Amino acid sequence: MQLDNGQEIGDSLAWWVTGPGEGALRHVPVRSGENNANCGWVTVEARYSGISRGTEALVFRGQVPESEFQRMRAPFQQGEFPFPVKYGYANVGRVISGPKHLEGRPVFCLFPHQQRFQVPQEAVQVIPDNVPAERAVLAANLETAINGLWDALPAVGDRILVVGLGVVGLLVAWLARQIPGTQVTAIDLNPARRTQAEALGLRFAECPDENDYDLVFHTSGHPSGLPTALSVAGQESKVVEMSWYGSQRVEAPLGEAFHSRRLTLRSSQVGQIPSYQQPRWNYGRRMRLALELLADDRLDCLITGETRFADLPEAMGDILANDGHTLCHRIVY
């Protein structure tokens, strides 16, 4: 959705990726439909936004493949891949004008890193009273995890392995652990991930301890994780691939026991709700669910750092570096 019509009412600073590993804060016009309150538009003043490290690192480095330029567009993206582009989708703010029932309310919006913006009211979701605005930056990641479980269809009592403990992997494991009887193991080569895994009540390991899992999620973002996921899936079980590699080539070992075990390799991507859910669910309802589930205080362990919005041009490279420590990084406005 592009904000390219309506009236200009001022400008705001926004984060733009301007070249490979480069970015800047630029003034952008803030536009709305005529008489925005009566037409159902809202003006939002940002308080926080979250950096989705996996996807935003690919954008920052110019690694979005040309074949995916359109499918990879964020809902309120401006500019075109590879550069310059205004990209992001985890903005938490307060409605400062709009329909009376929304004025003053804290909201989440799939909007890039920007101080102030206007969107149709249906593009924002009110944050529940029991969810701190600071934590709500996790909503987009949790929405991805929800969709991953919908694609996987885990069952009561399943032995489940999650390979790769970034934010999405940890959220997938946390959700799966709440299904009665499941035995969930969360693995990562980085031993520092034990802290977050155990804080969420998960069993942590650095490598799989069996090779007969009922369901395996691959969420590491590294090509080396997929062979691990395939090697430990049991007979007739499913491997759900949730990593997105951009233009990077990935080798999938489909020899060995892949056929004899009759494995299923299934992709999962948050951009489309699974077909069996579509009669009852839409994107708004899915996002409301994600926000409601964020009421668990333990999820604060997934936010591992903060940066002032004004400091983004100097800080973004370090935030997106693969240092093994950063999970969700929060921007403060």
Automatic annotation (TrEMBL):
Say yes or no: keyword Iron-sulfur present.
no
Write out the entry's keywords from A to Z. Answer: Metal-binding, Oxidoreductase, Zinc
Q: Does the entry feature the keyword Thylakoid, yes or no?
A: no
Which Gene Ontology MF annotations are present?
metal ion binding; oxidoreductase activity
Domain (Alanine dehydrogenase/pyridine nucleotide transhydrogenase NAD(H)-binding) ranges: 158-209
- Tell me which cofactor or cofactors this protein depends on: Zn(2+)
Q: Which SUPFAM superfamilies match?
A: GroES-like, NAD(P)-binding Rossmann-fold domains
CDD domains in the cross-refs: 2-desacetyl-2-hydroxyethyl_bacteriochlorophyllide_like
Q: Which PANTHER family match?
A: D-GULOSIDE 3-DEHYDROGENASE (PTHR43350:SF19), NAD-DEPENDENT ALCOHOL DEHYDROGENASE (PTHR43350)
Family membership noted in the UniProt record: Belongs to the zinc-containing alcohol dehydrogenase family.
User: Under which name does UniProt file this protein?
Assistant: Dehydrogenase
